[in-house]
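My main concern about presentation is that the manuscript never shows what a single data entry looks like. For the editor and my fellow referees, an illustration may be useful. For illustration, here is how one protein appears when written out as sequence plus structure tokens:

***
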Amino acid sequence: MSTPTRNRGARRTEILAAAARLFAERGFHGVSIEELGGAVGISGPALYRHFSGKDALLAEMLLDISSRLHSGAAELVTAASGPQEALEALLGGHIDFALREPYLITVHDRELGNVPEPQRRQIRRLQRLYVEEWVTVLSELRPGCAPPRLRAATHALFGLLNSTPHSAGELPPEAAAELLHAMALSALVNVH
């Protein structure tokens, strides 16, 4: 009895991944329901069994990644033995995300404005909570630095780490991860 639910969940995940790729390549408005369905081997109208529309699909996509980033960061920080280990874990987690899911970075940057307002507020709230996980760790490492400065540094760091849609393909993932990690630590050295 659990097979249909599992298959439905797997199909939703497949649709979300295909939509992220298509939205990143052609933009939200440049992709039709029929093209989304075709990308996963179903008819466009069959998508309505999984999502009420393209905007609902986009909202779920961005809510999901925002939620995963926030909850993952909270778990990493909680499990760390101290702020330096927490920072290393946060960096590793975000770099892994940026290298694995560059399409989601592009979609978020370009398409957040197409998410309906209630969900957009939820996404922004989750993003603020994610940033605050970083700010809390950085404030322990840089106790004399004001939170607004640490917040600005965190956003700048995300700009660096989220550059992967433009750069990820030129280096093997391990080399890209190593480079991003080294650059991120170098950038943080000057935050005070």
Q: What stands out?
A: The two ends are 57 Å apart (CA to CA). The chain has one domain: 54-189. Residues 54-79 form the longest helix (26 residues). The chain is about 75% helix and 0% strand.
